[in-house]
């Protein structure tokens, strides 16, 4: 039967069924909803006419005519937009329409109070088993049917209100709040019910005699709750730049906001690395310092820029850490001096108390910190994928922003202003996305744009290649010059170490300007596309530069350190990374000063324009990723480098925040960047963290450590520290041979690393596929909803036409009889 009704052949049967339904509704003697609505509207109109405030006057008549003309014009526009509004429906069709679930409006207040009185009674009866409040069914959809018949008397409503207040009073605080929130009443009536419930509760408490212990318990609970809320408020106030971020979001949109949120994410990663290395490496070595060689360099101030000199013999660098087991008994046995043996560990120290194997701690601290960072990155990336790559059509988001984006709990004037600016900017972005039209170009125009894009990419690739080759040859020249440097002026030799970081930072500062010029030549229609293209070009530059620098450090310096007179090449590489990180920060400050502040002053004072520079998201974000990659590369050679990066990011956050608010303007074309945070996290994970992990793993597995410094001295590889520890455990306790086999299969074999990386990639791939499948399903469901709406319009139109056709012959026969 159902299949038959769905086929076009039985369309007449469907129309007959609808006609029968109309006939039944027409024969129904009870008052219909449409009739009640018409009577209600007629009574309201009569009351308005009888009202003294509506007495006719010339000014009022003129305003009424204007309002009437405006209403007529609005109705004409609506009828042109929706053909269903242009029809004059019959009373039978109106009865059918009024009984549809989608045409419901609401119930009377008495019905709501009666319904929630019953719900509170049920909740009180079920409190013996303490079920959750969310297990209760929601109220049915309010209906317009029975609008006049469901109206209770005033006395009955008051009695039901009192009983509802009594029931609310007997509920717990959380259940009372949830029940009041679920009631479809206005805020004033909810506040009145809550006030009455609290008033009766206070009168009941004051009227009854409460024992002293209960009062003390009551005051302790209140004090603990207030302390907890104060603590949460204090923690919320400690969040970095919360109010400033709201201001940035309101003035500059989600693109600039994503930069500062990404900077806060990097702060978290560096704080984690600093805590791990500080607790397990820096602090134990600082408590048990090694014996320093004679003739230690004094502090001259240049070390703050170069990182060499006085800082070389501190806990900041790899060479300071010892290769023996730290312990109090060892120092007492050797007259207060720590001793290192060729085998790497003192056996008599291991058997004593308070021992700490520094080589083993150094190896596992670096490995575990990178592993945990990888897990956090993968989780953040998968979560960001799920949040950004979902169905978020601009029309639906625009409706939600317009109708339900305001938070009515905000009462401060500053907070209200910030929220209004934020919502206004978001609406601009959504409207720009909705109104964006894809222009169809001709073949000649497409060919011309293709040639322009090809020329721009050729310029960018050629300039990047030239700069990378310049860095490669200049680093080689500095390497040879360092091998033949004189010792006449140590300060001059130390200052010459800044040449390579200055050249690389200068290239990273100037070349993105050429990329912006190429993007201006391409003239992209969409600002978001231009941002993503700029991110790709800056990423190409940063990855190429870091690749050349890693080859210089691990291929030239580490391969033959004696050629340039280095006793500890690990500390030298750590100093190089410190210099690069510091120079990158200095040039970022110079770019902020000259590129934003001085340009604003020049534009306002000299050019007499109010035009300010636009914040370059791609350039600044890639600078953050570049600096974070240097920090991850240097944590093996400089355990305190995450602390330097943390301090740099804190300064950069407030400096950039002030510069953006003072010197920059919002983009000319607002655009929404729903997936930019996901792109940032992805770039941080794959090119940045993956490259740093490969370099650190290659250093620990393949390169030979220095023989005169560091915790891995006189070992073939850093990896042998863990292997020797496992062998010692197996020798002392043969039952731990399983641990030795697990170490050989899981840690010594590089296949485990590839399997782990493959599992992470598979998890990310499946998560993205699941999200993509959900997006497709939601898209199909939305399309089905739209089709059902069109079906309703079609059925209502055909229903009206068939009904009119059946009424027309009857009218003709009546006119003929007359």
Please supply descriptive tags for the structure shown above:
818 residues, mainly alpha, two-stranded antiparallel sheet, disordered N terminus, TMC, transmembrane
What does this structure look like?
- With 818 residues, this protein is mainly alpha-helical.
- The protein contains 29 helices and two strands.
- The protein has a two-stranded antiparallel sheet with strand order 1-2.
- α2 packs across α5, α12 packs parallel to α26 and α27 runs antiparallel to α28.
- It is globular and about 110 Å long.
- The N terminus is likely disordered.
How is the secondary structure organized here?
Layout: H1 2-6, H2 11-27, H3 33-50, H4 58-81, H5 91-98, H6 109-125, H7 154-170, H8 173-182, H9 187-207, H10 212-237, H11 242-252, H12 254-287, H13 303-306, E1 325-326, H14 328-333, H15 347-350, E2 356-357, H16 358-388, H17 394-404, H18 413-435, H19 443-483, H20 490-495, H21 499-522, H22 527-557, H23 569-605, H24 617-634, H25 641-663, H26 676-701, H27 720-732, H28 737-748, H29 751-817
Antiparallel strand pairs: 1-2
Helix pairs in contact: 2-5, 2-29, 6-7, 7-9, 11-12, 11-18, 12-16, 12-24, 12-25, 12-26, 16-26, 16-29, 17-18, 19-21, 19-22, 21-22, 21-23, 22-24, 23-24, 23-25, 24-26, 27-28
């Amino acid at each position: 039967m159902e299949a038959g009704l769905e086929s076009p052949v039985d369309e007449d049967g469907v129309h007959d069924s609808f006609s029968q339904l109309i006939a039944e509704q027409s024969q129904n003697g009870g008052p219909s909803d449409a009739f009640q609505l018409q009577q209600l509207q007629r009574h309201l109109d009569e009351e308005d006419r009888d009202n003294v405030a509506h007495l006719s006057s010339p000014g009022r008549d003129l305003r009424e005519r204007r309002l009437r003309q405006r209403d007529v014009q609005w109705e004409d526009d609506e009828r042109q937009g929706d053909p269903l509004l242009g029809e004059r429906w019959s009373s039978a069709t109106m009865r059918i329409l009024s009984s549809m679930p989608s045409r419901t409006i609401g119930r009377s207040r008495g019905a709501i109070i009666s319904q929630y009185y019953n719900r509170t009674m049920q909740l009180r009866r079920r409190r013996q088993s303490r079920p959750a409040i969310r297990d209760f069914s929601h109220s049915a959809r309010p209906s317009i049917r029975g609008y006049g018949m469901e109206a209770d008397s005033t006395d009955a409503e008051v009695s039901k209100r009192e009983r509802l207040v009594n029931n609310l009073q007997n509920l717990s605080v959380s259940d009372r709040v949830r029940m009041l929130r679920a009631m479809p009443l206005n805020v004033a009536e909810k506040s009145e019910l809550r006030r009455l419930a609290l008033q009766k509760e206070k009168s009941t408490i004051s009227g009854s005699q409460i024992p002293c212990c209960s009062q003390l318990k009551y005051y302790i609970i209140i004090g603990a709750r207030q302390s907890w809320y104060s603590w949460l408020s204090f923690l919320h106030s400690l969040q970095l730049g919360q109010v400033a971020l709201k201001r940035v979001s309101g003035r500059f949109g989600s693109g600039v906001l994503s930069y500062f949120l990404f900077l806060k994410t990097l702060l978290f990663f560096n704080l984690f690395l600093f805590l791990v290395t500080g607790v397990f490496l820096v602090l134990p070595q600082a408590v048990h310092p090694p014996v320093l060689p004679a003739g230690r360099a004094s502090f001259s101030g240049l070390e703050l820029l170069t990182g060499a000199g006085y800082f070389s013999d501190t806990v900041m660098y790899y060479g300071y850490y010892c290769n023996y087991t730290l312990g109090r008994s060892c120092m007492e046995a050797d007259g207060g001096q720590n001793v290192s043996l060729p085998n790497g560990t003192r056996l008599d120290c291991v058997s004593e108390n308070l021992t700490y194997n520094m080589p083993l701690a150094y190896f596992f601290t670096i490995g575990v910190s990178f592993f945990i960072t990888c897990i956090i990155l993968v989780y953040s990336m998968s979560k960001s994928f799920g949040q950004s790559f979902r169905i978020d059509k601009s029309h639906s988001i625009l409706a939600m922003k317009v109708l339900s984006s305001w938070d009515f709990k905000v009462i401060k004037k500053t907070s209200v202003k910030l929220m209004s600016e934020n919502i206004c900017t978001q609406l601009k972005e959504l409207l720009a996305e909705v109104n964006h039209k894809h222009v169809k170009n001709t073949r000649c125009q497409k060919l011309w744009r293709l040639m322009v894009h090809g020329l721009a990419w050729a310029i960018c690739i050629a300039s990047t290649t030239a700069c990378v080759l310049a860095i490669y040859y200049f680093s080689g020249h500095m390497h040879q010059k360092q091998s033949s440097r004189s010792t006449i002026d140590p300060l001059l030799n130390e200052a010459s170490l800044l040449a390579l970081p200055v050249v690389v930072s200068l290239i990273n500062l100037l070349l993105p300007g050429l990329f912006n010029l190429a993007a201006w030549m391409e003239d992209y229609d969409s600002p978001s596309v231009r941002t993503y293209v700029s991110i790709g070009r800056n990423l190409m530059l940063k990855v190429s530069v870091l690749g050349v620098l890693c080859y210089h450090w691990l291929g030239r310096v580490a391969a033959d350190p004696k050629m340039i007179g280095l006793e500890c090449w690990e500390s030298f590489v750590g100093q190089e990374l410190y210099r690069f990180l510091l120079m990158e920060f200095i040039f970022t400050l110079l770019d902020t000063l000259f590129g934003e502040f001085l340009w604003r002053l020049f534009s306002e004072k000299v050019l007499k324009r109010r035009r300010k520079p636009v914040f370059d998201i791609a350039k600044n974000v890639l600078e953050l990723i570049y600096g974070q990659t240097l920090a991850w590369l240097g944590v093996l050679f400089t355990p305190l480098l995450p602390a330097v990066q943390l301090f740099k990011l804190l300064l950069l956050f407030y400096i950039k925040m002030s510069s953006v608010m003072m010197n920059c303007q919002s983009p000319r074309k607002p655009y929404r960047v729903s997936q930019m945070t996901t792109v940032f996290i992805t770039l941080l994970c794959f090119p940045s963290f993956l490259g740093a992990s490969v370099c650190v793993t290659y250093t620990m597995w393949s390169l030979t450590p220095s023989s005169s410094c560091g915790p891995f001295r006189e070992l073939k590889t850093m990896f042998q520290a863990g292997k020797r520890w496992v062998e010692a455990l197996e020798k002392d306790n043969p039952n731990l041979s399983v641990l030795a086999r697990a170490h050989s299969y899981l840690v010594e074999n590089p296949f485990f690393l590839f399997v782990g990386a493959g599992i992470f990639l598979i998890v990310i791939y499946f998560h993205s596929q699941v999200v993509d499948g959900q997006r497709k399903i939601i898209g199909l469901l939305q399309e089905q909803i739209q089709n059902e709406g069109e079906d309703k319009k079609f059925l209502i139109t055909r229903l009206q036409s068939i009904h009119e056709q059946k009424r027309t012959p009857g009218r003709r026969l009546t006119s003929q009889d007359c």
